[in-house]
Amino acid sequence: MTRRWRYVMSQYAALAVNILPPFLYLLVFFYVPMSILLVMSFWKSGYMTLTPAFTFENYRLFFTSPIYLRALLNTFLIATGTMLALVVLSYPIAYYLARFSPRHERLILFLIIIPVEINFLIRIFAWKIALGRNGIINSALMSLGVIDEPLSFLLYSKFAVALVLVHEWLPYVVIPLYLALKGIPQEIIDAARSLGANRWDVFWRIIFPLSAPGLFASFVLVYIPMLGEFAVPTLVGGPSGYMLGNVIESQFLSAGNWGLGSAIGFVLLTIILILVALVLKVAGLERML
Amino acid sequence: MDGPRGGLRVENLYKRFGRDVAVDGVSFDIKPGEFFSLLGPSGCGKTTTLRIIGGLLTPDAGRVYLNDEDITFLPPEKRDINIVFQHYALFPHLTVYDNVAFGPRRQGWPEDRIKAEVGRLLEMVHLQGYEHKYPRELSGGEQQRVALIRALITRPQVLLLDEPLGALDLKIRQQLQLELINIQDAFHITFIYVTHDQSEALAMGDRIAVMNEGRILQIGDPRTIYENPINRFVAYFIGNTNLLEGRVAEVRPGGMARVHIPGIGDVWGMCRHHCERLRVGLDVAVSVRPEKINISRTPPSEPGYNTITGLVQDIIYLGVSIEYIIRLEQGLTLRVFQQNLADDARQVITWDEIVWLYWLPAHALVLID
User: Which single residue of A130, B148, B356, B363 has CA 20 to 30 Å from A243?
Assistant: First the structure.
């Protein structure tokens, strides 16, 4: 064997040692199960039965059932509404922290991040205590005489799901936005103003477009996972806060219809992949970097 | 329009950041179409002064007038003053075309006029065909050219330039210096040029204001600043100079003074600033520019020179000139420039030789401050 050949082989060996373990892990625990689910979604499926076949019956069932389509619509309503609320809430916070550099900038950032460290279930149950019929908010409002009856929309509603999701995801929107805004050099804003841009122009023509990478990052980090949410709607959503994640979960865990569950899962996955592709195209991220 | 526009006057500007006084009573008056340099070391307050003129900062006290109109509290977008920044400050998400068109669009120019003007200015700075490139695709020199025409396209009355060439290589810097001078000539716009590079200020400015620690020390044309510095700081900061510290031994009418320099003896010098304070016993510095000193193996043949001897400690070959470092008594050294006249074999002086140094009293400045 020539020395050159041995060198090439050693390079390949090094590469293999580096990428093989993660590749195998993903293969065994992600690609194989996903493939099985994909195959299953085309099988004949019923309560606790699964017969190998090739049929679009599961997909047809999903797209013809008003209940499932309603859950799909609900999912997008809740996720989109929550995302909008998150952006509207986060932008001023991130803007204030990044552009005005208040004295306690780091402390405020820390306070925003800290809820992430609190156990997810504890947070949800805390919200249930606050929002319930006899919860803190209702009893406070009643004793103040603002309302006579407990507000029923507070818990087990789309509102409750959105509220808890906002709380859960806020740091993941604030931080990318903060970083994007912090990265805009002051000189650029000064240049725009000296060229005759008023505050409105400076924001919409300079600051907002330059913060877009932060918005896209938070979209991918937050909006996409929210589409697959099922724990929050299960605990605080009630019937009107029902999301597609709940449908999928129940097909697997209670309805016993794995074929239909897989099919709905892949419908959601396809929609998400299309959305991500669109976002990347619109954002033109490679152009901005 | 009535009369030339672009005259700018600042009066007693004062600005503090926390406990630091950045600008401490700065005043000057710039004529329309003048190329005015603000020169000083970093942290001397020159950029703060510029930002106050541009409206990016509000002074704690003092006034800014443009054509005798008080604009001290006018926001930057309402001032007919544009700025070119050291790091170009191009909008990274916009093309070259949209960057240059930014100002005209704020003023509501029709798009066909913008298009024609952007094309014309790009050609002027040798960037024709660059319309659709993004700033990150350009070199530093190209980016600064774009930033320059972006600031010029609307013909502001005053253009502020904040170390615009500071981030560029020497070659590109020299080329852009020339282009800037030509552009300023062609546009007749008042330029206020901030720099810490004294050679740049000397080469480019009609007038120079030398700043240090928030104050203006001296304002004058390049020759005056160089030949007649007002104090030790200006003498030392502009060009290189030899500063000899001593004490006045004799004063003659007309500003002539004999100064005793410990270890060297007495030298004659001229006083040109604050000479009414000149009296025997006063501590002063004598400034002699290295190129004004003659170096020779023999003493001067004519009288009237300040003459000393020293030992050649170092020779630095600079191409156009040769710099000698001459050691005197008491650890003093003098820098001497000689023009490089290679055919003059007599002049070839080497290390460790004892040489004569002599210069005219008119070239030795007595500095009181």
Answer: A130
B77 contacts A197? CB cut-off 8 A: yes
Q: Which of B203, B246, B193, B256 is nearest to B225 (CA)?
A: B203
CB pairs under 8 A between A and B: 69
The domain A72-288 is classified under which CATH number: 3.90.226.10, 1.10.3810.10, 1.20.1300.10, 1.10.3720.10?
A: 1.10.3720.10
The correct answer on CATH 3.30.1490.20 for the domain covering B8-232 is no
Q: What is the DSSP annotation of A236-248?
A: IITGGG--HHHHH
Q: How far apart are CA B52 and CA B345, in angstroms?
A: 56
**In this structure, are residues A192 and B102 in contact, taking their beta carbons and an 8 Å threshold?**
yes
Interface of A with B (CB under 8 A): 185, 187-188, 190-198, 201, 205-206, 209-210, 212, 287-288
| ipTM (interface predicted TM) | 0.83
Residue B329 Cα distances to B300, B308, B332, angstroms: 20, 10, 6
Strand partners for B192: B36, B160
Tens-digit pLDDT profile for residues B211-221: 999 999 999 99
pTM of this structure? 0.81
